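writing this on my phone so excuse typos. first protein, seq and then structure
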Amino acid sequence: MNPILQRSLLRRSIPVLLASLVSGAAAEPGGAQVVRVEAEENFRLEPNGTRLATLAAGTELDFVEARDTWVRATLDGWVWAASLQSTDRNGFDLVVSASGGENLREHPRGRVLGRLSEGTLLDEIERSTGWVRVQRTGWIWRVSVEVDETRAPSSRSPEVDREADGGGATPPGGRAT
């Protein structure tokens, strides 16, 4: 092929190639993978490390990476604010301070995703009356999860059902659950 024609084609192809790379970035593995817990399992600081939480079957996490017999994923959910304390330890915003730990929920007053261990460090994402949305990346045993590459993580609404909530900040039973 003529060298001048080759350069011309290359010059016209680069913007198209770059555009396709940028638009395809969201579809790359890891960008939209969901990890679904198949059976109750521990969520750990590192493979076989300190337990951060016990997750319920059906809980979904955002896939980060897989290594050997472990999957690294990010947990996202809501915690009753009274069960947390501010911290600046290891770059985290919050620590679970409730004796015995605290439930992590899909949304305020929602389905329980698991139980966070007392002392677990968390990143604060947002707040809604009496509740804090938190995240934490950790490890879970690969045998206990299914990685679903066909759909993006479910969005978790920060809205509280005011009718069910009665407009107050106290959870059912008058204590954090």
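second protein below, same order as before
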Amino acid sequence: MKLYDITQTIDEHMTVYKNKAEKRPIINVTRTHNVGGVRESSITLDVHTGTHLDAPLHMQADGTTIDTMALEQLITRCKVFDFTHLDRGISKGDLDHHKIEKGDVVLFKTRNSFEDFFNPEFIYLEESGAKYLTGIGIKGVGTDGLGIERAQPGHPTHHTLFNSGVYVLEGLALKDVPVGEYELIALPLKLKGLDASPVRAVLIERD
């Protein structure tokens, strides 16, 4: 068995969406061994930080929340596809010659995984690609970008996926992961009523 940790490390200097200061984690040491006898820390964290799972509430006012996500959907077989050759969005035409089947969870490895800075031209999933995937009947999609889409008025990619019950993982770290099939474990924190959660995501390659 081989395990790939596909989770970004959370720290105060990590890459965040659009380099917005309000999205950067703030970590405070609240007690130390010298003062208090123990070390304790607190963290202020945007729920869309690093490797995270979006809930429909993120884009839809009546959408479901992160604490309602079915965990069995997040411990599942998945397929990793390589789109590192692309310098634009992933379209239907990029997907339709791959073996994608009903019930699949698909993860997209792109050049995003090789960049340690926020690139405003990050690779994303175009609306045509989202419509193609929902037409097949996938159950989940993951990307190594900090967003599943960019510069699309009205956020059609998110809405297309959420309207079909497809969950969205963002910020995956897929640099060292070969194309193939794996077992995915990507569990969110049990946060009541929120629109997303950081996850610890791993891929397991069975012998």
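The mean pLDDT is 97. thats all i got for now
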